[in-house]
Amino acid sequence: MWRGVIEEYRDYLPVGAKTPVVTLLEGNTPLLPAPRLSERVGARVWLKVEGANPTGSFKDRGMTVAISKAVEDGAKAVVCGSTGNTSASAAAYAARAGLACVVLIPDGYIALGKLAQALVHGARVVQVRANFDRALALVRELAEKEPVTVVNSINPYRIEGQKSGAFEVVDVLGDGPDVHCMPVGNAGNITAYWKGYREYQDAGKLKRLPRMMGFQAAGAAPIVLGHPVEKPETIATAIRIGKPASWYGASAAAAESGGMIEAVTDDAILEAYRFLAKEESVFCEPASAASVAGLVKVGAPPGARVVCVLTGHGLKDPDVAIGQIAVPRAVDADLAAVMEELAL
Ligand SMILES: *Cc1c(COP(=O)(O)O)cnc(C)c1O
Q1: How many CA atoms lie within 13 A of 143 on its CB side?
Q2: Nearest Cα residue to 61 out of 157, 131, 201, 180
Q3: Ligand 1: which residues within 6 Å by Cβ?
Q4: For the chain, which terminus, N or C, has the lower number of CB atoms within 10 Å?
Q5: What span, in angstroms and rounded, lies between the C-alpha atoms of 71 and 16?
């Protein structure tokens, strides 16, 4: 039986015999072959379906380590700023550990499903009239005044846990892919994957390091532009970030691997979002689709082995889904009316 990220990858993580393991059995997510996407881009593409994690996003990989270490260090409460998924994950793992959880979210810019998760798991949720970057700054200030542990990806244990995604890819493929595509928001995850691939290389488990391709939304693309974005805007709220905390890590991953950080438009993100749902049967959230929009934009060498990380589950953001497609109108309850509606 799969035992969760900490037990499965204990040798690579900063945990000891005394660390209390707080887990929801995260990780071990599908690496799903994507035949139609492969045909479209002329490469062999796999989708790392991170929506299959316990709270529906990759954030659980880092949260199991961050919360376990917080308990080990005697914390009573944790705090995070969040575009949504960090708060959902923090709330769930804190509840499991019996810790109080406070989350600061940008007012009006968080997907409904994620807000529901944080509330139902019992977090104290504060909506702040500000964007994510300001919310995170407030979290840092709060942590200086009060005895609370920050569980944003500025907490190094988050990055440590998230690198397990790279281990799983290599464990399935038997080596690194040629190209690795993923969305970039606060840039913790690309930093984590690159760390994971390199650690597996050091351990002799991987011969070939992938090119790391990170994709930001065009309206929130500070790394691509080379300067912070004051008012980031994109439909992909999980990557609506103007001043990434792990900016340096993302740039280093791209530079050291011969990869790149690129921007993709909201239209391209939504096209990839619909393509994934209709052609590959994976319902991911808009931010996740940025990885595939990016792959379609920049392409891949013929026959290359490509992994696209789909970071979170589509059900988290029903508003975007419904906004994409006309909601069906009601018809009378007789067969003639149904057939007429179907134009049969
Ligand atoms: C957090 C998140 C991202 C961005 O990850 P970073 O580590 O902030 O770059 C992308 N997609 C989803 C669904 C997320 O929850």
Answers
A1: 23
A2: 157
A3: 57, 59, 85, 153, 183-189, 238-239, 285, 287-288, 311-312
A4: N
A5: 13
| Closest residue to atom 13 of ligand 1, CA basis | 312
pTM (whole model) above 0.90? yes
φ, ψ dihedrals at 27, nearest 5°: 90, -170
Give the distance (Å) from ligand 1 centre to CA of residue 272. Answer: 17
The Cα–Cα gap between 66 and 99 comes to: 12
Atom of ligand 1 nearest to the CA of 312: 13
Tens digit of pLDDT for each residue in 174-186?
Answer: 999 999 999 999 9
By CB neighbour count within 10 A (0-12 exposed, 13-18 middle, 19+ buried), where does 144 fall?
exposed
Question: How many helices (H) and strands (E) in the chain?
Answer: 15, 10
Q: What digits encode the pLDDT tens for the residues 248-258?
A: 999 999 999 99
Mutate to test the pocket of ligand 1, among 55, 58, 80, 240 (most ligand atoms within 8 A of CB): 58
Give the mutation target among 186, 283, 292 for probing the ligand 1 site: most ligand atoms within 8 A of CB: 186
Q: Do the beta carbons of residue 87 and residue 343 sit within 8 Å?
A: no
86 C-alpha to ligand 1 centroid (Å): 9
pLDDT averaged over 10-residue windows placed end to end, the chain, 344 residues: 98 97 98 98 98 98 98 96 93 98 89 93 94 91 94 94 98 98 97 98 97 98 97 94 96 98 98 97 97 98 98 93 82 96 92
Q: By three-state DSSP, how is residue 123 classified?
A: coil
Torsion angles phi and psi, residue 342, rounded to 5: -80, -5
Looking up tokens 């990055």, which residue turns up? 159
Backbone angles phi, psi at 49, to 5 degrees: -90, 85
For atom 2 of ligand 1, the residue with the nearest CA is 238
279 alpha-carbon distance from chain centroid: 21
Distance CA 202, CA 210 (A): 14
